[in-house]
Amino acid sequence: MKPLIKYFKKFIWLFVIAILFLGIETISDLMQPLLLSKLVDEAISTMDMNLVRYYGLLMLLATAIGLIGALMRNWISTYVSYLFAKELRETLFEKLLSLSITQVEEIDRGSLVTRLTSDINFVQQFVNGTMRILMKAPLLAIGSFFMVLKLDSRFLKVYLVMVPIIFCITFIQIRLGFPLYSKIQKSVDQINQKTMEFLGGITAVRAFDRFDYEQETFIELSDDLRDVNTKTLRIMAIFSPIIMLIINMSIVYVIYLGKDWVFSGEIGAGQIIAFTNYMTQFFFAMSMISRVFNIFVRAKSSAERINEIFDMKADVQLGEILEKNIALKSSLRFEKVSFQYGNGRPTLSNLNFNITEGESIGILGATGAGKTTLIQLMNRILLPTKGEIYIGDTPIKDIQKKSLSDLMGYVPQKTVLFTGSILENLEWGKRGLSIDNYKNALNEASALDFVEAMPHKLNTKLGKNGVNVSGGQKQRLSIARALVHEPKILLLDHSTSAVDVITERYIKDQLKKRKNMTLLLIAQKASSVRDLDRIMILENGQITAFDTHQQLLSSSEIYKDLYEAEMGKEKPYASTI
Fold it and tell me: Which residues form a coiled coil (predicted)?
């Protein structure tokens, strides 16, 4: 839990104040049995009503002081723990945003959700429990020891036998509990992951009628969680009764011997009563330690999982160069660029090419050729394993993220729209523009007509991921969003695959009117890119051809076969392009 110490340090003074109030509360609790023994032995035994009132008032005063201490301690601990969790959750989310796509995808989404929610909640409970219970338990246990010693030294032998046994039992509980609670967290992760997987693929589940299979899998995971929870609770439930049995045996032993001490006048009955109360307080302290331990074990497991995210070093480092400090152009240059995911085979190998400012480029290639990876290298979602990428004369890795985002527009292969109005989705591109600016972007993306036909026009609410618009409409809205801030470089990853030929041609014609904008368009069909300035052919992560449409017809057999198959001049080519 070391990386979390800085958060504890931030609230150290509130923590100290809470401990002070907790100390006041504990002292008040420890004074009650002592005052009770005085009341019995000095007041009730002599029927001195003045002493009865005196000690009674002292007990009420101690109770009132303890109540104030408890209320203040509870208020501060609750405030600090919730503020601690808030800042930790925000920092963890910020860390996730700084990681590259490949790093995020290495972690199960269900696990990410668990870490942002229940894991942080467990850490929060531990912080709260530390200030409310954990610090009180040792104070109460040590205090009860010295108070018993103050009553009569003969009680010390009982403590010296009982305390080591109880501590050994608590140590065994800690050793057994940690791995069990870790298993519970892993089982929760699996259920979260399965639930998210099911909800994300519910259409496919329905189409293939796999509800029975999904239910059986979920029930199996649920049974695993039940079994590990049951096993853990059964094991943990053993320790508290054992500790209680040892303490009760100690009380019985003292009462058995104490009757002779009382009859002989060596000690008073009030001291026996006080000893019994202190033993009960000691048991209460050990029970609190046991409860906090259960929270600690879960919090430790959760903290380790949270720290796994904090310990990840972001692949994509933010550059320091601002756009205003350099002459950023819309030209792109790749020099000996290679990329691979993890330890797998290279996705792209030794790419070298130049794209001039204002040029329109089409990218074709078979599934898995590396087209999307190439686009993601251009906007620094990924960083190359080898080589260097330049925008103008500036290495892309040195450009500040905000400047790079202002420079580029990007429409990913998987269209993403957010819950909210169409206008709110367009504002992801740039906020604060006039309605005419947003309409112009919609017009260029051939989306204005269907948006204007909607009852609420730009204020029409979209469902999750644009569930209430068609695939082609989602793509056009995404293109409009990318055009809103007038990028110098526009990256389209299969962004017109769901629109008809006429609409696709209209969109490309509109984009060509932006004379200084560099366009890169990934497509599956040669007809989608033949009217662009140049066309790049990717095969197995390498560029096999990069030229104009006319030149490729004579120099690239793959491109020629694909184009002629689309035009119906011969049998369809068997390529997967």
Answer: none
Closest CA to 458 of 499, 425, 500, 491: 425
Q: What is the 8-class DSSP label of residue 266?
A: S
Spatial distance between the Cα atoms of 151 and 154, rounded to a whole number of angstroms: 9
Q: What is the DSSP letter of 499?
A: S
Matching CATH topology for 2-310 and 323-567?
Answer: no
The CA distance from 296 to 123, in Å, is: 8
Take residue 266 and report the two structure tokens written for it.
């060596």
Half-sphere exposure of 136 (CA within 13 A, CB side): 30
DSSP of 413-446: SS----SEEHHHHHTTT-SS--HHHHHHHHHHTT
* pTM score: 0.65
Q: Report the C-alpha gap between 127 and 125 in whole angstroms.
A: 5
Q: How many angstroms separate the Cα of 346 from the Cα of each of 12, 274, 351, 370?
A: 50, 76, 12, 10
**pLDDT given for residue 570 in this prediction:** 46
DSSP 505-529: HHHHHHHHT-TT-EEEEE-S-GGGT
Q: Are 279 and 250 in contact (CB under 8 A)?
A: yes
Instruction: Select the CATH number that applies to the domain covering 323-567 from these four: 3.30.428.10, 3.40.50.300, 3.40.50.1820, 3.50.50.60.
Output: 3.40.50.300
Choose the CATH number for 2-310 among 3.40.50.2300, 1.20.1560.10, 3.30.70.2390, 3.90.950.10. 1.20.1560.10
357 phi, psi to nearest 5 deg:
-60, 130
Of 114-123, 346-355, 374-383, the least confident: 114-123
Which bin fits 457, alpha (ψ -120 to 50), beta or left (φ > 0)? left
Nearest alpha-carbon partner for 55 in 45, 42, 64:
42
The full set of domain ranges for the chain reads 2-310, 323-567
Question: Rounded distance, CA 199 to CA 294, Å?
Answer: 33
pLDDT of the residue at 574: 41
> How many Å apart are CA 67 and CA 74, to the nearest integer?
10
Pick the most confident of 174-183, 318-327, 536-545: 536-545
In the numeric block, the tokens 């808030």 are attached to 86
Distance between CA atoms of residues 436 and 430, nearest Å: 13
Helix (H), strand (E) at residue 363: strand 360-365
